[in-house]
């Protein structure tokens, strides 16, 4: 039985004081939440959040990492540094990283490997653009994003990975994939992994991301292959994020 997971991606938002307000709002109302909860603040606020969540079930994650161990990579942050700051998770291959910062599937695979080497669970983000969906290429695109990671990590390591399906056309647009559209891709991802290892495929958590909010979360979580959510905009408001966490009960 898979456990639901809800991950908040704060992107490049927040100040020390707004994060204090957001986290206290969240921590005050956790009683109705049975899912795992992860928040991914900007790196400079990881330590602040880590200290706030000490006695709570909330985990903290990074939004990105560099796959090198250390060295002359100005501005970058390694897996070891994230682990040192208490991160249990890290987003890898978010579409904004792929599109705005030119990350390739090979980079993404290297980052997943680096994070696992330090005991951090990578949340591997995959998803197609609107044009790719309209051209009927969704499954080919998803496979082309997954396979290099499977090859680099080996099948067994996939047991320690979370996958997030985020159609690019649904991120930050207010347009959500329909529950059926999302579930079809989740089922395809699970099937692709099942060809390598059925047990891992049945147990891996596959999250949906793309304009998830308090109103649409329940219907998404009602789908068989949707195990949680990766939430951008709505994770910046405690009440909205909590409502999503409370809806995260798997069928
Ligand atoms: C995201 O950034 O991963 C995301 C899904 O954003 P939003 O929820 O705002 O669409």
User: How would a textbook summarize the main sheet?
Assistant: 8 strands, parallel, barrel
Which structural class should the secondary elements be placed in?
alpha/beta
Overall tally of structural domains? 1
Helix content, binned percent:
40-55%
Mean pLDDT: 97
Side by side, the strands of the main sheet go 1-2-3-4-5-6-7-8
Broad CATH class = Alpha Beta
Uncertain segments are none
Outline of this structure?
The chain is an alpha/beta fold and 251 residues long.
Structural description of this entry:
This protein has helices spanning 16-27, 46-52, 79-84, 95-100, 105-117, 130-134, 138-153, 179-194, 198-203, 217-221, 238-247, and strands at residues 5-9, 36-40, 58-62, 89-92, 121-126, 162-165, 206-209, 228-231. The protein is an alpha/beta fold and 251 residues long. The chain has a single domain (5-250), classed as TIM Barrel. An eight-stranded parallel β-barrel has the order 1-2-3-4-5-6-7-8, surrounded by five helices. Helix 2 links the parallel strand 2 (36-40) and strand 3 (58-62). It is globular, with a radius of gyration of 17 Å. It binds phosphoenolpyruvate. The site of phosphoenolpyruvate has 13 residues, from strand 8.
Topology:
Elements: E1 5-9, H1 16-27, E2 36-40, H2 46-52, E3 58-62, H3 79-84, E4 89-92, H4 95-100, H5 105-117, E5 121-126, H6 130-134, H7 138-153, E6 162-165, H8 179-194, H9 198-203, E7 206-209, H10 217-221, E8 228-231, H11 238-247
Parallel strand pairs: 1-2, 1-8, 2-3, 3-4, 4-5, 5-6, 6-7, 7-8
Helix pairs in contact: 1-11, 5-7, 7-8
Bound molecules: phosphoenolpyruvate.
């Amino acid at each position: 039985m898979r456990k639901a997971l809800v991950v908040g991606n704060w992107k490049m938002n927040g100040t020390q004081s707004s994060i204090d307000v957001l986290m206290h709002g969240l921590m005050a109302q956790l009683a109705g939440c049975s899912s795992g909860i992860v928040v991914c603040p900007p790196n400079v606020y990881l330590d602040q959040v880590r200290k706030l969540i000490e006695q709570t079930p909330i985990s903290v994650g990074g939004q990105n990492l560099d796959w090198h161990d250390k060295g002359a990579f100005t501005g970058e942050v390694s897996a070891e540094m994230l682990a040192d700051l208490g991160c249990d998770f890290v987003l890898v291959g978010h579409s904004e990283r792929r599109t705005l910062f030119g990350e390739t599937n090979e980079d993404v695979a290297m980052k997943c490997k680096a994070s696992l080497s330090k005991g951090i669970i990578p949340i591997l983000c995959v998803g197609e653009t609107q044009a790719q969906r309209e051209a009927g290429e969704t499954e080919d695109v998803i496979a082309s994003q997954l396979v290099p990671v499977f090859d680099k990590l080996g099948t067994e390591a996939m047991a320690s990975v979370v996958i997030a399906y985020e159609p690019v056309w649904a991120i930050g647009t207010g347009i959500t994939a329909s529950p059926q559209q999302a579930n079809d891709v989740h089922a395809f991802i699970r099937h692709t992994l099942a060809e390598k290892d059925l047990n891992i495929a049945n147990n891996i958590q596959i999250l949906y991301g793309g304009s998830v909010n308090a109103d649409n979360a329940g219907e998404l979580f009602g789908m068989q292959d949707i195990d949680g959510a990766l939430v951008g905009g709505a994770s910046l408001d405690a009440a909205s994020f909590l409502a999503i966490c409370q809806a995260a009960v798997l069928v």
